Amino acid sequence: MSSYDLVVIGTGPGGYVCAIRAAQLGLKTAVVEKRATHGGTCLNVGCIPSKALLHASEAFEEAGKHFADLGVIVSEPKLDLRKMMAFKDEGVAGNTKGVEFLLKKNGVDSYRGTGRLAGAGRVEVIAEDGGNQLLETKNVVIATGSDVTKLPGVTIDEKVVVSSTGALELASVPKRLVVIGAGVIGLELGSVWRRLGSEVTVVEYLDRVLPGMDGEVGKQFHRILGKQGIAFKLSSKVTGVEVGKKGATVTVEPAAGGEAEKLQADVVLVAIGRVPYTEGLGLETVGVQVDNKGRIQTDSHYATNVTGIYAIGDVIAGPMLAHKAEDEGVAVAELLAGQSGHVNYGVIPNVVYTFPEVASVGKTEEELKKDGIAYNAGKFPFTANGRAKVNHTTDGFVKILADATTDRVLGVHIVGADAGNLIAEVAVAMEFGASAEDVARTCHAHPTLTEAVKEAALAVGKRAIHI
Ligand code: FAD
Ligand code: NAI
């Protein structure tokens, strides 16, 4: 029987990063993955393929709608969906092969199959052909990720009624796409298919899009997507999806009750959240505790209630984000090697990769109000940023929230082109405990979109220059 210091179950961003860091620190490490390729949800059916399609569909829309404004005259662009999907698949393959290479390079052993906890210090690997292997290990890290939340009474067939996985590989552009849920997946993939020609209607239970993000951001973003042609039915619930010979009929009712209406759709995307995935892991054989949402319970060192078993990523509490899973992977590996691994949950950026992008880090205005924390807000619109003006990307703003007494940055919220990159500087600033004044006094290159961040920081002290 092979024997290890650490066996990691699942090679998504949490698991593979954890394994590499553990190997770097001298732990004899193995990973167990049931998928044919490494990289988990993120690389295979999540972050990477969705960003490839967002990139390609944006290029398609740009060529059709905006090139002429720049004096670039091209004939009307035509969509070759198969080629676009091949572009996406190539990106996925490049990334998953990269992870395989990194695991090998760091001396991590790879086992293909379902990992099952088989008593103290043992993991059983069950291969697809039924064969099994027993691994002995001092520690186990569970990084088995998450799965799609099902809508009661609605069967996902990945053809007419799809999850994000099916929506990333449709064979043709649906004429009418109904999206259930105005969260990250609904708005990113809704944007992809709208750009490629679908009429998109998003049905959301709550009275706003992107719940959990800053309210002002949600409002402005809702308006922008509306202008782009996405239709919204907020405060509405789907009570049934009936698949017919051609497409589906979606029954929608006001969330508070009232008259139902029927929407016709060629494809229905169910995007109402994700749930922790622990099927087949055998948690019950060793008695690992989960909470009422099915998340594996851990302490601040990622330890479960069972000695030697740890858990990280989407399968535990916290935002279901790849970079959160990665940082937890590093932290738990360092803790196992006797170091002081740590994740600062107050500074985890959250980005929606639509156009424009939405990015946030730290507290929202709603959270600060609820916590009774006095703050000053500085806001700067991209309409007043020179680079955004010349690029015709003036939708959106930067908002910085700083403690009213200490001026420490507590939260930053951006709607705008490249917001996902812009948020990085304020995340670093927050990690160092910076004040808005620190950001305002830092020289920012001209002409860049980053100047809008500096101006928002100046606006906290009511001294922005360009508005
Ligand atoms: P996962 O990536 O889910 O990996 C878990 C792995 O464990 C899987 O490969 C699975 O096969 C394997 N596994 C499960 N059980 C077993 C078992 N018993 N034995 C062996 N293997 C097992 N996040 C971002 O930060 N940015 C984005 O842009 C982004 N885009 C997304 C787009 C979509 C469409 C989706 C669905 C998600 C997106 N996410 C994004 C979320 C991100 O994918 C997850 O937060 C991230 O993948 C979580 O990493 P993880 O390592 O915890 O789990
Ligand atoms: P989500 O939690 O972001 O959004 C789900 C939405 O569906 C919410 O607005 C919710 O109010 C709504 N909803 C729930 N039940 C409903 C119902 N019955 N009818 C109508 N609306 C309903 O979940 P989503 O978009 O499925 O994404 C799952 C996870 O994947 C997210 O937690 C996110 O962290 C991660 N992800 C991250 C991305 C990124 O970082 N860019 C991209 C895609 C996914």
TrEMBL record:
<dbReference type="GO" id="GO:0005737">
    <property type="term" value="C:cytoplasm"/>
</dbReference>
<feature type="binding site">
    <location>
        <begin position="181"/>
        <end position="188"/>
    </location>
    <ligand>
        <name>NAD(+)</name>
    </ligand>
</feature>
<dbReference type="InterPro" id="IPR001100">
    <property type="entry name" value="Pyr_nuc-diS_OxRdtase"/>
</dbReference>
<keyword id="KW-0560">Oxidoreductase</keyword>
<feature type="domain" description="FAD/NAD(P)-binding">
    <location>
        <begin position="4"/>
        <end position="329"/>
    </location>
</feature>
<keyword id="KW-1015">Disulfide bond</keyword>
<dbReference type="InterPro" id="IPR012999">
    <property type="entry name" value="Pyr_OxRdtase_I_AS"/>
</dbReference>
<dbReference type="InterPro" id="IPR023753">
    <property type="entry name" value="FAD/NAD-binding_dom"/>
</dbReference>
<dbReference type="Pfam" id="PF02852">
    <property type="entry name" value="Pyr_redox_dim"/>
</dbReference>
<dbReference type="InterPro" id="IPR036188">
    <property type="entry name" value="FAD/NAD-bd_sf"/>
</dbReference>
<dbReference type="GO" id="GO:0006103">
    <property type="term" value="P:2-oxoglutarate metabolic process"/>
</dbReference>
<feature type="binding site">
    <location>
        <begin position="320"/>
        <end position="323"/>
    </location>
    <ligand>
        <name>FAD</name>
    </ligand>
</feature>
<feature type="disulfide bond" description="Redox-active">
    <location>
        <begin position="42"/>
        <end position="47"/>
    </location>
</feature>
<feature type="binding site">
    <location>
        <position position="115"/>
    </location>
    <ligand>
        <name>FAD</name>
    </ligand>
</feature>
<feature type="domain" description="Pyridine nucleotide-disulphide oxidoreductase dimerisation">
    <location>
        <begin position="348"/>
        <end position="457"/>
    </location>
</feature>
<feature type="active site" description="Proton acceptor">
    <location>
        <position position="446"/>
    </location>
</feature>
<feature type="binding site">
    <location>
        <position position="51"/>
    </location>
    <ligand>
        <name>FAD</name>
    </ligand>
</feature>
<keyword id="KW-0520">NAD</keyword>
<feature type="binding site">
    <location>
        <position position="204"/>
    </location>
    <ligand>
        <name>NAD(+)</name>
    </ligand>
</feature>
<keyword id="KW-0547">Nucleotide-binding</keyword>
<dbReference type="InterPro" id="IPR004099">
    <property type="entry name" value="Pyr_nucl-diS_OxRdtase_dimer"/>
</dbReference>
<feature type="binding site">
    <location>
        <position position="273"/>
    </location>
    <ligand>
        <name>NAD(+)</name>
    </ligand>
</feature>
<dbReference type="GO" id="GO:0050660">
    <property type="term" value="F:flavin adenine dinucleotide binding"/>
</dbReference>
<dbReference type="InterPro" id="IPR016156">
    <property type="entry name" value="FAD/NAD-linked_Rdtase_dimer_sf"/>
</dbReference>
<keyword id="KW-0676">Redox-active center</keyword>
<dbReference type="InterPro" id="IPR006258">
    <property type="entry name" value="Lipoamide_DH"/>
</dbReference>
<comment type="similarity">
    <text>Belongs to the class-I pyridine nucleotide-disulfide oxidoreductase family.</text>
</comment>
<keyword id="KW-0285">Flavoprotein</keyword>
<protein>
    <recommendedName>
        <fullName>Dihydrolipoyl dehydrogenase</fullName>
        <ecNumber>1.8.1.4</ecNumber>
    </recommendedName>
</protein>
<dbReference type="InterPro" id="IPR050151">
    <property type="entry name" value="Class-I_Pyr_Nuc-Dis_Oxidored"/>
</dbReference>
<feature type="binding site">
    <location>
        <position position="314"/>
    </location>
    <ligand>
        <name>FAD</name>
    </ligand>
</feature>
<keyword id="KW-0274">FAD</keyword>
<dbReference type="GO" id="GO:0004148">
    <property type="term" value="F:dihydrolipoyl dehydrogenase (NADH) activity"/>
</dbReference>
<dbReference type="Pfam" id="PF07992">
    <property type="entry name" value="Pyr_redox_2"/>
</dbReference>
<feature type="binding site">
    <location>
        <begin position="144"/>
        <end position="146"/>
    </location>
    <ligand>
        <name>FAD</name>
    </ligand>
</feature>
